[in-house]
What we know:
The complex is a heterodimer of chains A (about 600) and B (about 55).
Chain A (H helix, E strand, L loop, with lengths): L8 H29 L6 H28 L18 E7 L4 H17 L4 E7 L4 H18 L5 E5 L6 H13 L5 E4 L5 E2 L1 H13 L3 E6 L2 E2 L5 H12 L1 H12 L10 E4 H7 L18 H11 L3 E5 L5 E3 L5 H17 L11 H33 L21 H29 L8 H34 L18 H25 L4 H12 L1 H9 L10 H4 L3 H12 L9 H6 L1
Parallel strand pairs in A: 1-2, 1-4, 2-3, 6-9, 7-10
Antiparallel strand pairs in A: 4-8, 5-10, 6-8
Helix pairs in contact in A: 1-2, 1-13, 2-8, 2-12, 2-13, 3-4, 3-6, 3-19, 7-14, 10-12, 11-12, 11-14, 12-14, 13-14, 14-16, 15-16, 15-17
Chain B lengths: L2 H4 L34 H16 L1
Membrane topology (chain A): Multi-pass membrane protein
Pathway (chain A): Glycan metabolism; osmoregulated periplasmic glucan (OPG) biosynthesis
GO molecular function, one term (chain A): hexosyltransferase activity
Amino acid sequence: MSRAPAPDLRTLTLRSVAIGFAVLAAGAAAALLAATSTQDGVHLWDVVRTALIFVTTAWLAWGAAGAFIGLAARRRRVTPPPLTLPQPPTVVLVPICNEDPVTTFARIAAMDGSIRAAGLSVDIAVLSDTRDDLAAARERDAFARLLDETGGAGRMFYRRRSDNRGRKAGNIEDFIRTSGAAYRFAVILDADSLMEGETIRHMIARMQADPQLGLLQTLPKIIGARSLFGRAMQFSAAFHAPVFARGLARMQGATGPFWGHNAIIRVKAFAESCSLPALEGNPPFGGHILSHDFVEAALLARAGWKVELDETIGGSYEEGPENILSYARRDRRWCQGNLQHARLLTAPGLAPWSRFFFLQGIFAYLVSLLWASFLVSSIAATVTAPPPNYFPEPYQLFPVFPSDSTREIVTLALGIVGLLLLPKLAILGSAALSDGARSFGGRARAAGSVLAEILLSSLMAPVMLMYQSRAVLQVLSGRDGGWPANQRGEGRLGLGQSLVAGFWILTGGAIALAAVKMLAPALTIWLLPVCLPMLAAPLLIWVTSLPVRRGVFTAPEETDPAPVIRSFHRWQTRWSQPAPHRTEAMNAAA
Amino acid sequence: MSAEHIIDPQTATAVEAVHWAPPVAPMDMPRQVLEAPRSEGAVAWLMRLLLRPVQHG
């Protein structure tokens, strides 16, 4: 039986408001489309596209509702509780798999210094799942240098698994099984995560203050982006994401999300409720659970632990993909992981909201396919529509012309665009009024960045739609995408490389445009916003991967970097040179 | 600059020293049940869900 914490009245009200708004908006969109498309009678394609517009608009409105709910700042700031001494034993876990050890360990060195500056005694464990022996040799040398230059022996650990069963979730589980009893709390990071010591101190204190809190998730800011694509994401993560995350946190209540990293867990809670079994059958739907974090959050809630997201916790960072291709590669894995959750919708004892959250994650990917289906069914409805009957009655003297439905269609289009743009514009307005735009270069520069981000994301949307639709179709047809290594760092692509990668989208766009022009010329203008970016896909992939100057998409972490970020850069620069001398560990090994 | 250009794996000599390993302090982690047994299926789950208020009396 579920022991999940019951949602309070405020959380229930906000959930009802968001769901109600989504259903109302979807109903209005479906009614408008049905009114215009059934003037000549009800046909199969009209029913299909009306159903599709209902579902897709509900999804858009749901996202917008989350932003609107998050717009209002927290009335009472969470008062940071003091750390109770003695400080509970805590470890920072850094799971890695074929990462660049110099960059990864430079982050660890920076965090170690920041942790000690915060007056904490926290261990750091590097949990390697690297399979390549040469890469592992590099890791060992880099770790020996890390110990040597930070004096980290005894508080920094490194172990490499002999097999990588269960991937990242299995890696963490392996650590807890062998070393979990030594720690009360564990901060879970990714290889590209960076966290201030003060942030870790704050999180430990929060866990101490609430014994029912099983997991506390931060909202990591993206740092270090260089390309146009990366910088747009970095800006969006800093400017828009806190509002969306606050809306999510308010609706989730105590059954919050876990994003797999930049969070602190209560080791006992995690151990007793988060050992994931492999699902029966083969991937993509069977085997190890790819999107393990959502499941772990649901299982913690099932066991009665609180899982909270607090977007106000600062000093938590990560890096993001630098181009569309690396984003699409990561998205392919997330797509498979989220669709796999269909198997878990009926898992025993889950809180209803956890099931809803799984459904939402599944929908996040299905919706691309549904939008594509809506476009196809709209063309099919136009092509198969019977010719207008100007004399529906026998012996009729004057013809009856079909009523002009341009107004309804334009209203529908404006409504959908509004659902897409209003949240971002509302966030801009709120930032301008509250002086929140200052750290983004001032009101004018923040407004420019928001408009540029809207333009860029609108251009990329059809390309993303194609990648997501392909990923969904691949998973549904049984193709396992595996767990490809993350591509970090320099993301610049060549024009040829972009042409090869985006040619299938260009071809799809050309075929779609030609087909529409031939079959339903009246719809051509409506499909241009989708088809033109598809035709330009290789160019978009290439251009967005190019580095841009820092004036574009200014983010606060650039104008005033946190101490841990500056320290990371110093360590990275220092280790960009070969080691000047043999390290203690190397000598010991020799 | 990435590690590939800084550390030559052919001349990398460090080995995992004993003190590199995290402390040994085992903790039990019971495997969780995520799927109803195949013999039960969705109908059984639905029945359980519908009957729950009755069971609670």
